[in-house]
Design goal:
The chain is mainly alpha-helical. It has two domains: 86 residues, DNA polymerase, domain 1 (Orthogonal Bundle); 175 residues, hpI Integrase, Chain A, CATH 1.10.443.10. Helices cover 55% and strands 4% of the residues. It has a three-stranded antiparallel sheet. A hairpin with a 5-residue loop joins strand 2 and strand 3. The radius of gyration is 23 Å and the shape is globular.
Amino acid sequence: MKWQQALKDYQSYLRIERGLSENSISNYGLDIKKLITWLDDSKIHSTPIAIKPEVIQEFIYSIAKEVNPRSQSRIISGLKGFFNYLIFENYRKTNPLELIETPKIGRKLPDTLALEEIDQLIKAIDLSGAQGERNRAILETLYGCGLRVSELTSLKISDLFFKEGFIKITGKGDKQRFVPIGDTTIKYIELYRKEVRVHQKIAPKAQDTLFLNRRGNQLTRAMIFTIIKQLVEKTGIDKVISPHTFRHSFATHLLENGADLRAIQQMLGHQSITTTEIYTHIETSFLQETIEKFHPRKDE
C-alpha cells in the first residue's frame, strides 16, 4: 500500500464512518502529508504498513525543531489516529506511535473580550457602506449565539426560526442543534436582510445562504477573519482576536452571569462537558463569590 492511497482511504473513512467535517479531514490529512514529505526529503522508502517506530521517532525529533509543543502534540495525535485506522482495517498489527509520548503543554485559553470591547468593535464598523450592516449582523451573531465561524458562514435563511426564538445550526460532523437567539441579534440580522441583502444579485447556489459577499456568494472563513482583523486594528484593542474569541466570550459571559454549564454545552454543540470547561474559564474571584453565595455552609 502506497502513502497517497492510504491517505485517500483514511480520509474517506473519516468522512463516511466518522462523519467529520471537511475542515477536520483536511487538518488530519496535513499531519500525514508532513510525514510523507519528510520521508521523501530524507529518501526513506517505507510504506504505511512497514514503517517502524524508530523512523517515526526520527520524524518527531525533526519537527520538534520547527513547531511548538502544541503543534507537535497535534501532529502526533493525528498520526496515531491514522495508524489506528490501519490496524482497524487489518493492514497493521501495531501502532508505531504507541510508545511515543506527546509533549507536555499548558492549557492555552484564548483571550476573552469584555462587553465594552465587543461594543467598541461593533461601533467601529462603517455603516455608510452596504457591507456595514452585514458586518454588524455577523459580529452580533458570532457573539449573540456563540457560533463557530464555519457555522456562521453556512447559516441558511431557512435555519432562522425567529418567532420561536431559535436558529438551527449544523455543526461538526453535520450534527444539528437549536441555539437561542436574542432580540438584538434578530434586529440586526433583519436590518441586513431587508436593507442590504434584498438588493443583491445572488448566485443560484447561495439563494438560501444568509451572509453573502459582494458577488452574492457565501462568505469564506478567511473573509470573516479579515473583517475582524481590520476592526481590531481600527480600535487598537491589544488582544489576539479571531472569530473564535466571540464564541469564547459568549460562553464565559454566560457562565459568569450564572448560566448552567450543561446549557452552555448544548448551545456550543460540545459532545463532552470537559470541552465546554476549557472554553469557560473564570476568574478566581468569581469562583469565590459563587462559593460564598451558594454553598450551604457559607455562614458556618
